[in-house]
Amino acid sequence: MRIDKFMSDTGILSRKEAALAAKRGELLLDGEKIPSVSLHIDPEKQTITYRGTPIVYRAFTYIMLNKPAGYVSATDDKNLPYVTELLPEAERRQGLFPAGRLDRDTVGLMILTNDGALSHYLLSPKHHVEKKYRFEAEKPLSADAEVRFAEGMKIDGYVCKSAGLCLNPDRLGGVITLTEGKYHQIKRMLEALDNKITFLERITFGGIQLDETLPRGGFRYLTDEEVTLLKNNQI
Ligand code: URA
For the chain, which residues make up each domain, given as ranges? Predict the structure, then answer.
């Protein structure tokens, strides 16, 4: 792989910036100056350092975002704020997109990646990847709510897969577990119970938990362990 491609894949430098950095001696290959960024390297055996920091090559990027309310789950929108706007330039250059949608007013765990195959797998209805949501409702949930969730709620003629419902003692909120993702699913499930969602936050996705230290609108890279957890859904 060419050195400039290596650098632009990591998102740290564009190809042009990599060429400039190499000229300035800020980018080194195994500690030596780089005559040309068109040089091919083997990232397994050789080390690139940028301003003294060794760069780890990753074919794909995986980011956890704590989505704030008001943002659409998209990479572009003419009128509304969209989630990739919350990322700095280096990350925006990497062609990241949200793995699955959250409604504009839903907050919490969103995975952004450029790994199309993994995203496709995680979202496929065939694979039943689990997601948990913390919610608050307008009024206490009816006495039959747990049973109806477990049996499969009917929303507009569609029978949902069995879902988990763990209610707080006041029955005004709790945690819902889904293994599918229909349009406005939780809101429609609550409507079917003659109730209304007033707050919705995704707290887990395929074994990954929302990092409580991330402020709304904040992001961080997934750890290697978290990427492995996500990929284990593929087994
Ligand atoms: N269900 C909803 O209704 N909205 C979301 O954003 C996610 C699940």
Answer: 3-54, 62-125+206-234, 131-205
